[in-house]
């Protein structure tokens, strides 16, 4: 088994084996593997459920204006803190705004936060990890030390410090989360790149004179992608919770713009009088995160050729 | 045998009753800063000081100055010397005697300590003379009508001079001369004080032990009171007021305070100000489009009294001649039009706590009807101070916790060089009036100056006052004899706790 | 083995230096003068000037960094800008609180996670496994501050079963201390327990599949014996290393939990310090956190080597 000699470190340890087997069959079995993966995914009920949840969140975010006619931002002081009813399915908040409408528009913030943060993390982390793993030596030394330094500060604390430095708004929260999550992708990519680099066909490619860039793009990158995709999905889940946490602390999307985390921050002051303000945003976060977690799990199982 | 048993039982129960210390646990809104009165900057610190320390003078609920460590005082004819006769037989909590030398040492320290926050408060003092053991004279550079009121607060608090040698120790283990002495402080958690039996008025303080517990979350604070972990809390959230009123086990005791919440406009502080807001008609339009009663009803639960000036009704300097604040959207629109605007876009900066957030969003709706489009910009406390100083704002919502003397509520905010005048409003006439009010010596004389200044300020509207900050306390029924004071400090004289 | 430890230590030093520079630099870039925040609502200009001088805030950043490093090497982590209390005594006061929370949280996590993981692996594919997996994923997906708020509402406000906030030291009143920490520890441990369950399950599965386990089964040993004696013992290795990894999550989770339950611990200290721009506290606390991280990871590495006979021989 071509596994690197470090102990179980990341949740996607099984993917290391996947890379080994995948690398072996990289040249000619791509289409078949994809089909097999898809069938496997569809058979996994939990994964499909996860995909459905994710789709639900996307629909909420995209079609918010059509799903609710209420304005999520406009205060209405006559309908303050009303319990759920036929007119307001999830009740109203401390400024009379419809909670259901705010939930829908808040999905945009959460989804955006999740996806954009992970994109930032991957866009920075992937190339760095590839460089570190492929070239080794000093490049690896510097990149790995920086990644280690970032990793030795707890993720949320780093995100808090960064978000405080950048100022409390959604964009900065996304940047903060992205930068904090980046080292994980560096580590993961580096590990996979190391494994693939050791393969014979890569040595062969060097021997026949292929350039570094060519080798990285043609051989290493495709084999690194599957575990990255899995990790990305799982990290989106983490990022959604991180954005909610930052907003909860007052560092992310601040009111009046709707965000599930900041809704909970305000709601906690009204827990006795208006518990519905706390219940629904929390459930929304839970379902979104669960969806991405299940999706990520399903992707991992589908892409792992060991589990047949 | 039976008689012996009964006697034993009686003795046991008697000693048990004696052993039960009467203690009170008070929930505070913020964590306490430093316990050195000379360095203290936070409001909640003063709540602790009210029990830990004595000042030279104190106030009554209607803001009259009364003796505390000083029993009487006289001002010289030219107003430049303030002489105090001190109370005799007073001891500090470490046993050291309180006397004129101690007063001089404390004032000198407050004036010269590099990190002292009391310097501007005591700026009018030239030096202090200890005439004899019980007489001390403050020699001033110019008359200062506000000084007496200032000496009722931190600037006049007397620490034992013996502790000054240990600079760090003053804050970590303060030794004062108040009814309760310092026992313990756990950062972020609590401060514990215990009765000082050598206090000169010890008999009037039934409670033996105080624990101050900072609990920033208002809901959790109230939950703790309900569950019995607290006996009293300060600043209940207005959204909980109705629930407290309906609870038979709790008492709501509220009084309007000395402080206020207001909107200040960046008139001349750097280039980031809004040009439209430089026109006083636009500012007046903003003022007229606010419905303060609605804010009081919806957000304040009836305890946020509307304000039209920076002085509370309890102050002898309150100007009753100023018209009560009222909403007039039509007039506001007309004023805007006269100033040449249909709509005005304003970036509105405010601290992102729950109550401020709600009020600002309500403001946004209200002024929106008159034509102001507020773009909300929430910040945290430190960033807000920075923005205020550097002029990085157009309009800002903030608060001032208020002081006894009107000078402290007005001067630094409205004079050209005032360091709390973030909008850099400047009017030479107002400067003259407010400076004069500082050196006049009778209430009548000073009020004349303040009334004249109030007229100008009401016309120019550099600040729009929203509400007078109240001090709403919630007490469990066990607590008896508590009277709230407008300065918001918790005085435990005569306060007892049942059971 | 000694060589490996020495190697790891050597690697840790530049990491630590980088961390200190990172945090120091970050703090300096924070908008909002800390001195202004320290000067309170009075904003006395004289006070502001003397504070800037006292804390060397007018000197260039590299100079400030060097001064700070010199202090740290002498064991002086500075003084809180807000309360004049030395950072080291703040840490002394608050670390035990968070450690108590972390330990109790870990007990919940281990008590729930590991047995669930073992059972789940043993009944692989069955309904128990499926249910446990869903439960674990749910545990990981619930935002812990929300769980905290809901629990406070139900358990403290509605049912009056447990205190809703604050901290009681165990030396003061042991059982009250446990009672006060019960909800926060559960909230903290729930997410961790979920992750631990999944790791235990996968570690157990990969062990159970190995040849020597099959041999043990073939020899006719009872299923339970095989699972517990052989499977679990060998699964312990990756589980232990994962525990070290979860230490980091524990600290992060503690930040939010302490905020919701108003516990005066490490996490709350750092959040308040960031909001108050209390430089000294943030720097000191993050440095200590990073150091403990590195130590814990080192410990995990060593433990892994010790436990894994294959590694020891190499």
From TrEMBL, chain A:
It is a multi-pass membrane protein. Residues 107-296 form the ABC transmembrane type-1 domain. This is ABC transporter permease. Belongs to the binding-protein-dependent transport system permease family. Gene3D superfamilies: MetI-like. It is found in: Cell membrane. InterPro entries: BP-dependent_transpt_permease (IPR050366), MetI-like (IPR000515), MetI-like_sf (IPR035906), OppC_N (IPR025966). Keywords: Cell membrane, Membrane, Transmembrane, Transmembrane helix, Transport. The chain crosses the membrane at residues 46-67, 111-134, 146-166, 228-254, 274-295. Its main location: membrane. SUPFAM superfamilies: MetI-like (SSF161098). CDD domains: TM_PBP2.
UniProtKB/TrEMBL annotation, chain C:
Residues 95-304 form the ABC transmembrane type-1 domain. It is a multi-pass membrane protein. CDD domains: TM_PBP2. Pfam families: BPD_transp_1, BPD_transp_1_N. It comes from the Bacteria. Its main location: membrane. The chain crosses the membrane at residues 9-26, 99-122, 134-154, 174-194, 235-256, 285-307. It is found in: Cell membrane. Signal peptide: none annotated. Keywords: Cell membrane, Membrane, Transmembrane, Transmembrane helix, Transport. Belongs to the binding-protein-dependent transport system permease family. This is ABC transporter permease. It comes from Paraburkholderia edwinii.
């Amino acid at each position: 088994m071509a596994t690197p000699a470090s102990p179980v470190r990341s949740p996607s340890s099984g993917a290391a084996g996947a890379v080994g087997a995948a690398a072996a069959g990289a040249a000619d079995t791509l289409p078949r593997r994809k089909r097999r993966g898809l069938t496997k995914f569809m058979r996994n009920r939990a994964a499909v459920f996860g995909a459905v949840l994710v789709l639900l969140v996307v629909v909420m975010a995209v079609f918010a204006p059509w799903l609710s006619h209420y304005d999520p931002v406009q205060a209405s002081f006559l309908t303050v803190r009303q319990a759920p009813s036929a007119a307001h399915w999830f009740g109203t908040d401390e400024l009379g705004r419809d909670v259901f409408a705010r939930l829908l528009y808040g999905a945009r913030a959460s989804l955006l936060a999740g996806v954009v943060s992970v994109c930032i993390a991957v866009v920075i982390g992937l190339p760095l990890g590839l460089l570190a793993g492929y070239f080794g030596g000093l490049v690896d030394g510097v990149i790995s030390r920086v990644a280690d330094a970032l990793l030795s500060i707890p993720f949320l604390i780093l995100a808090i410090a960064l978000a405080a430095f950048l100022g409390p708004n959604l964009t900065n929260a996304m940047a903060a989360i992205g930068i904090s999550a980046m080292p994980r992708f560096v580590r993961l990519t580096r590990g996979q790149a190391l494994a693939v680099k050791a393969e014979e066909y890569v040595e062969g490619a060097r021997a026949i004179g292929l350039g570094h860039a060519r080798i990285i793009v043609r051989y290493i990158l495709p084999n690194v992608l599957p575990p990255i995709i899995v990790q990305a999905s799982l990290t989106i889940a983490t990022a959604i919770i991180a954005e909610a946490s930052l907003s909860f602390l007052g560092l992310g999307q601040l009111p009046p713009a709707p965000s599930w985390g900041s809704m909970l921050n305000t709601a906690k002051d009204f827990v006795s009088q208006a518990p519905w303000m706390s219940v629904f945003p929390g459930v929304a976060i839970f379902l979104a995160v669960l969806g991405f977690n299940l999706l990520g799990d399903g992707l991992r199982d589908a892409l792992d050729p060991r589990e047949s | 045998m039976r008689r012996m048993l009964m006697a034993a039982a009686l003795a046991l129960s008697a000693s048990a009753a004696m052993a039960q210390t009467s203690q009170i646990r008070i929930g505070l809104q913020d964590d306490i800063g430093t316990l050195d009165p000379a360095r203290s900057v936070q409001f909640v610190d003063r709540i602790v000081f009210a029990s830990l320390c004595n000042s030279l003078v104190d106030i009554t609920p209607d803001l009259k100055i009364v003796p505390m460590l000083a029993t009487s005082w006289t001002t010289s004819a030219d107003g430049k010397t303030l002489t105090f006769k001190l109370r005799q037989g007073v001891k500090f909590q470490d046993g050291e005697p309180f006397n004129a030398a101690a007063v001089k040492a404390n004032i000198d320290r407050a004036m010269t300590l590099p990190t002292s926050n009391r310097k501007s408060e005591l700026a009018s003092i030239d030096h202090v003379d200890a005439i004899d053991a019980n007489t001390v004279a403050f020699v001033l550079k110019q008359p200062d009508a506000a000084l007496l009121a200032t000496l009722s607060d931190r600037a006049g608090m007397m620490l034992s001079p013996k502790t000054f040698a240990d600079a760090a120790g003053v804050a970590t283990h303060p030794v004062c001369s108040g009814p309760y002495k310092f026992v313990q402080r756990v950062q972020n958690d609590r401060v514990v004080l215990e009765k000082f039996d050598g206090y000169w008025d010890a008999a009037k303080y039934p409670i033996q032990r105080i624990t101050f517990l900072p609990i920033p979350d208002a809901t959790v604070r109230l939950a703790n009171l309900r569950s019995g972990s607290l006996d009293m809390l300060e600043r209940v959230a207005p959204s909980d007021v109705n629930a407290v009123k309906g609870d038979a086990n709790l008492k709501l005791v509220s009084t309007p305070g000395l402080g206020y919440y207001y909107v200040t406009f960046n008139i001349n502080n750097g280039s980031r100000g809004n040009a439209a807001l430089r026109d006083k008609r636009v500012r007046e339009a903003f003022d007229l489009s606010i419905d303060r009663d609605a804010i009081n009803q919806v957000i304040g639960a009836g305890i946020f009294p509307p304000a039209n000036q920076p002085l509370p009704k309890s102050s002898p300097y309150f100007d009753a001649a100023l018209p009560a604040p009222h909403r007039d959207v039509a007039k506001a629109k007309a004023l805007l039009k006269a100033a040449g605007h249909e709509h005005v876009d304003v970036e509105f900066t405010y601290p992102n706590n729950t109550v401020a957030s709600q009020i600002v969003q309500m403001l946004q709706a209200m002024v929106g009807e008159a034509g102001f489009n507020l773009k909300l910009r929430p910040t945290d406390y430190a960033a807000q101070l920075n923005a205020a100083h550097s002029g990085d704002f157009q309009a800002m919502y903030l608060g001032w916790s208020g002081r006894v003397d009107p000078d402290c509520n007005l001067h630094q905010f409205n004079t050209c060089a005032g360091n709390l005048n973030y909008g850099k409003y400047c009017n030479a006439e107002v400067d003259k009036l407010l400076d004069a009010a500082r050196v006049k010596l009778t209430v009548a004389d000073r009020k004349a100056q303040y009334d004249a200044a109030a007229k100008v300020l009401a016309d120019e509207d550099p600040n729009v006052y929203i509400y007078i900050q109240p001090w709403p306390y919630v007490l469990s029924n066990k607590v008896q004899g508590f009277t709230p004071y407008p300065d918001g400090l918790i005085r435990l004289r005569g306060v007892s706790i049942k059971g | 083995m000694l060589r490996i430890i020495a190697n790891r230590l050597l690697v840790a030093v530049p990491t630590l230096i980088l961390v200190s520079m990172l945090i120091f630099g970050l703090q300096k870039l924070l908008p909002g003068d800390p001195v202004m925040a320290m000067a309170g609502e009075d904003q006395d200009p004289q006070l502001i000037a003397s504070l800037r001088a006292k804390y060397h805030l007018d000197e260039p950043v590299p100079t400030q960094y060097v001064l700070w490093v010199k202090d740290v090497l002498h064991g002086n982590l500075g003084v809180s800008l807000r309360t004049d209390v030395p950072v080291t005594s703040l840490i002394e006061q608050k670390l035990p609180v968070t450690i108590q929370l972390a330990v109790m949280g870990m007990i919940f996590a281990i008590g729930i996670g590991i047995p669930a993981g073992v059972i789940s692996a043993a009944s692989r594919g069955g309904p128990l496994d499926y249910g446990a997996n869903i439960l674990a994923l749910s545990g990981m997906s619930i935002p812990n501050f929300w769980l905290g708020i809901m629990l406070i509402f139900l358990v403290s406000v509605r049912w009056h079963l447990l205190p809703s906030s604050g901290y009681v030291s165990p030396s003061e009143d042991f059982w009250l201390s446990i009672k006060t920490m019960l909800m926060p520890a559960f909230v903290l441990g729930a997410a961790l327990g979920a992750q631990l369950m999944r790791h235990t399950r996968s570690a157990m599965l990969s062990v159970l599949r190995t040849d020597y386990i099959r041999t043990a089964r073939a020899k006719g040993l009872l299923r339970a014996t095989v699972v517990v004696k052989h499977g679990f013992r060998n699964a312990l290795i990756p589980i232990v290393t994962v525990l070290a990894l979860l230490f980091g999550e524990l600290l992060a989770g503690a930040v939010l939990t302490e905020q919701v339950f108003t516990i005066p611990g490490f996490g709350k200290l750092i959040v308040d310090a960031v909001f108050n721009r209390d430089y000294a506290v943030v720097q000191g606390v993050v440095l200590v956190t990073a150091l403990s991280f590195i130590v814990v990871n080192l410990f995990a590495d060593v433990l892994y080597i010790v436990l894994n006979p294959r590694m020891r021989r190499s």
